[in-house]
């Protein structure tokens, strides 16, 4: 299949990844920059350790709800999930042993969900150890790290509280002087395919997918939601929803829609079996994948529509 | 007296460990330690009240719709907005579908691995392609996610184990399907953003209702043909767990699902087996054993949340809610038990399993109540779908420019029990936000009087017969469907 000439659907892409992985075993398509990290991975399924910090497990739930592919095919074909706090059969000491064994082996992908309480280590412990003690060793041993969701990517809601000094995974790595290939998959929560797709790419090509300057896969975060919004036309015509009860079709800009500034693929790939997304359900994008989510206290999430001027000035056209 | 620790407890939401003292092969005392703090109540201070519907919604991503709904109810009280009938029905519908799916996830994916050995799949011979694939996966690769388990008395014979494991996989499909119904109503899930104090923003059309009805039908079929029978299979196999994990005979139910007129669940409290009317004013939160400044109990509306890690005598980030001083258990059991007079299917299931009513207070009693409630909620969901009128409004809007001052109380329900949000605002800014969450009740630590929390009490007497892996303690703890992100928030 010629990737440049034929635009692929997501399903095609996943099939393609699967086939490539089977044919090449992940080896032949490696690029030099990540070859070393990838060589540590002995077989085609990438070993994955999933850890959670100051989070809510919403990103894991999004993965559980994902159908591209569903959880079992994803786990049995693409990755070898060694540990997950919500799914692992093991518990207690056996669970920490599995994590520790994998840390010693190295060569795994660390998926991390939630923020890290850099200013108050007691605010998150795993077993009996503070997360801030466990995490550096795991990051050092990992081949790559994936920040799953907005908390891990940018700090999210926990970082809105100065009490615990909550920071994103990237900021934590910076504080600790840790350097690893990092993928950010923001979204509160992320949409499951952003993770399965990024991992499928890694399995197929042995390198991280093309990322933007912030480490977000361009495929899923290359455009703002507004660019692909089904209601874009109404925005261009200054036709706005001013009352949710009477109006179910127009542009939600005056209700505080953050689609114009939020890089994500919600209107393209939609959510939960491609069923819908916020704007399609007549509610503004709240920018949950935006680095500033959940937005400063002063501005809040929503706006008073009567105070917002028309976005398109016809005098300017 | 030996000390045994289960840390971390997996297959739950969040960060929990259990410390026990063991004597004569039984747990004689236990401590539940909640180990992660974010401070949602403090994050809300100074923000626009409307933000609560989106921010507190994210207290938990497993019970992902419950806090948004509780917050919208508190805000409705604060803004004095009336919800049109369609709006109330749509919110009940979202909550019912979500809780039913949450229950399936809890039984199959979080709890079942405590009872069934996945290695049984290696003997699978049938044609089911999904099972074949998983068999190959388990046999050839021994996935670390499924294979290593602590020592225990698991169901390993293929005739019993395989149908349960097949439904483990089918239940994943079911919760995925349920998520699509929720997205139809809420735009997406986890976290539907269509829920506002005055109702739901979504345009409701007949085709959407037909789709949701069809999904609710599939979920209901799965509940009655798989979930309930599978819980019964586990109950029959582990009858001892109708006495293990007993706990206090104290239950809390706020009532709810009232959009069709008379509520599906009536409010009620049971203390030491005796019924009492529910009064929100009797709820306090005790800080004695929690990592916050202060000691003793305060009425929940006046509570403070000032972290003090390392506080002398404290061992958990969870506060200790009490009702007239009593530790109460809350969950599906509390709703179906308090309402057994209205719908007796839970008690009938107990009868079928030859268990007296008082054994409802047990590990298996909780699983059975959860399954019964899933059926009750899905029947209710179908009734609601039939009553929604697409021509009527779904929402009454709130004037966001209004510098609102006042108080708002939202009593609501979650998969794990009864949920309360309380807001105070001045001039359009939140001055106080309080959440008293189901897992806060269940996993509360000791209070000022030294009374253990409900799960701490339920663990007392648990026999530990299969070594340090503490399979038995895990079973008791998971019967409460622990949600730690919720409990501490």
- What's the main sheet of chain B like? 3 strands, antiparallel
Q: Radius of gyration of chain A, rounded?
A: 21 Å
Content of β-strand of chain B: 15-25%
Structural class given helices, strands, pairing of chain B? alpha+beta
Strand order of the main beta sheet of chain B, please? 1-2-3
The CATH class of the largest domain in chain A:
Alpha Beta
Class derived from helix and strand content of chain A: alpha/beta
Please summarize what this structure is.
The complex is a heterodimer of chains A (317) and B (489). Chain A is an alpha/beta fold and 317 residues long.
Topology:
The complex is a heterodimer of chains A (317) and B (489).
Chain A: H1 10-24, H2 32-39, E1 46-52, H3 58-65, H4 71-78, E2 79-83, H5 92-105, E3 109-113, E4 116-117, E5 125-126, E6 129-130, H6 131-141, E7 144-148, H7 150-154, E8 166-167, H8 169-176, E9 182-185, H9 192-205, H10 218-221, H11 232-236, H12 266-269
Parallel strand pairs in A: 1-2, 1-3, 3-7, 7-9
Antiparallel strand pairs in A: 4-8, 5-6
Helix pairs in contact in A: 1-9, 3-9
Chain B: E1 2-6, E2 16-23, E3 26-34, H1 40-44, H2 51-55, H3 66-79, H4 85-111, H5 129-141, H6 158-186, E4 195-196, E5 199-200, H7 206-237, E6 251-253, E7 268-271, E8 274-276, E9 283-286, E10 297-299, E11 320-323, H8 332-338, H9 345-352, H10 363-387, E12 406-414, E13 417-426, E14 429-436, H11 438-442, H12 454-459, H13 471-478, H14 484-488
Antiparallel strand pairs in B: 1-2, 2-3, 4-5, 6-7, 7-8, 9-10, 9-11, 12-13, 13-14
Helix pairs in contact in B: 4-6, 4-7, 4-10, 6-7, 7-10, 8-10, 9-10
């Amino acid at each position: 299949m010629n990737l440049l000439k034929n635009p692929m659907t997501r399903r095609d892409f996943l099939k393609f990844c699967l086939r490539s992985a089977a044919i090449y075993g992940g080896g032949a398509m490696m690029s030099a920059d990540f070859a070393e990290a990838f060589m540590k991975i002995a077989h085609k399924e990438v070993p994955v350790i999933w850890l959670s910090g100051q989070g809510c497990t919403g990103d894991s739930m999004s993965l559980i709800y994902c159908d591209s592919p569903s959880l079992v095919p994803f786990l049995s074909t693409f990755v070898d999930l060694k540990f997950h706090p919500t799914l692992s059969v093991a518990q207690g000491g056996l669970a920490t042993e599995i994590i520790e064994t994998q840390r010693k082996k190295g060569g795994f992908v660390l998926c991390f969900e939630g923020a890290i309480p850099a200013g108050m280590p007691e605010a998150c412990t795993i077993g009996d150890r503070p997360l801030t003690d466990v995490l550096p060793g795991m990051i050092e041993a990992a081949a790559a790290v994936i920040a799953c969701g907005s908390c891990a990517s940018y700090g999210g809601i926990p970082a809105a509280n100065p009490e615990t000094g909550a920071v994103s995974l990237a900021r934590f790595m910076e504080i600790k002087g840790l350097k690893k290939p990092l993928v950010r998959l923001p979204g509160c929560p992320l949409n499951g395919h952003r993770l399965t797709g990024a991992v499928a790419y890694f399995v197929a090509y042995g390198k991280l997918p093309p990322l933007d300057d912030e480490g977000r896969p361009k495929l899923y975060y290359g455009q703002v939601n507004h660019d692909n919004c089904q209601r874009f036309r109404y925005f261009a015509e200054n036709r706005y929803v001013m009352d949710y009860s009477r109006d179910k079709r127009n542009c939600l800009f005056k209700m505080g829609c953050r689609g114009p500034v939020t890089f994500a693929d919600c209107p393209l790939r939609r959510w939960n079996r491609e069923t819908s997304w916020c704007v399609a359900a007549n509610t503004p994008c709240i920018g949950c994948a935006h680095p500033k989510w959940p937005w400063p206290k002063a501005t809040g999430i929503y706006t008073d529509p009567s105070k917002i001027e028309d976005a398109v000035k016809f005098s300017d056209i | 007296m030996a000390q045994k620790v289960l840390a971390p407890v997996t297959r739950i939401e969040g960060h929990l460990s259990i410390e026990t003292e063991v004597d004569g092969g039984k747990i004689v005392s236990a401590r539940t330690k909640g180990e992660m703090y974010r401070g949602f109540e403090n994050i809300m201070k100074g923000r626009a009240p409307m933000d609560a519907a989106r921010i507190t919604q994210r207290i938990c991503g497993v019970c992902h719709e419950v806090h948004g709904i509780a917050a919208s109810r508190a805000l409705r009280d604060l803004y004095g907005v009336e919800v049109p009938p369609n709006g109330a029905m749509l919110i009940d519908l979202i909550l019912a579908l979500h809780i039913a799916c949450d229950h399936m996830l809890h039984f199959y994916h979080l709890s079942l691995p405590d009872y069934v050995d996945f290695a049984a799949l290696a003997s699978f011979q049938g044609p089911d392609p999904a099972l074949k694939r998983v068999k190959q996966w388990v046999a050839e690769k021994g996935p670390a996610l499924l294979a290593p388990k602590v020592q225990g008395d698991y169901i390993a014979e293929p005739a019993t184990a395989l149908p349960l494991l097949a439904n483990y996989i089918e239940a994943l499909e079911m919760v995925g399907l349920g998520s699509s119904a929720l997205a139809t109503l809420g735009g997406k899930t986890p976290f539907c953003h269509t829920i506002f104090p005055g109702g739901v923003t979504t345009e409701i059309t007949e085709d959407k209702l037909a789709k949701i009805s069809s999904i609710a039908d599939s979920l209901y079929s799965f509940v009655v043909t798989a979930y309930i029978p599978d819980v019964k299979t586990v109950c029959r196999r582990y009858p001892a767990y109708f006495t293990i994990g007993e706990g206090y005979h104290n239950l809390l139910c706020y009532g709810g699902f009232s959009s069709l007129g008379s509520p599906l669940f009536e409010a009620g409290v049971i203390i030491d087996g005796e019924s009492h009317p529910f009064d929100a004013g009797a709820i306090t939160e005790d800080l004695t054993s929690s990592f916050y400044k202060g000691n003793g109990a305060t009425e929940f509306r006046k509570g403070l949340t000032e972290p003090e890690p390392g506080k002398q005598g404290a061992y958990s980030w969870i506060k200790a809610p009490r009702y007239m001083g009593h530790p109460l258990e809350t969950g599906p059991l509390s709703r179906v038990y308090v309402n057994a007079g209205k719908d007796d299917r839970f008690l009938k299931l107990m009868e079928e399993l030859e268990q007296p009513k008082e054994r409802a207070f047990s590990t298996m009693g909780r699983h059975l109540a959860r399954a019964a409630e899933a059926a009750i909620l899905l029947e209710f969901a179908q009734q609601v779908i039939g009553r929604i009128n697409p021509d009527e409004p779904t929402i009454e809007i709130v004037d966001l420019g209004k510098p609102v001052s006042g108080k708002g109380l939202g009593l609501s329900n979650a998969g794990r029990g009864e949920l309360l949000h309380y807001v105070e605002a001045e001039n359009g800014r939140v001055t106080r936000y309080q959440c008293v969450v189901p897992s806060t009740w269940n996993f509360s630590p000791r209070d000022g009087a030294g009374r253990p929390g409900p799960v701490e009490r339920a663990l007392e007497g648990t026999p530990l017969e299969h070594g340090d892996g503490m399979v038995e303690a895990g079973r008791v703890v998971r019967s409460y469907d622990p949600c730690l992100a919720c409990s501490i928030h």
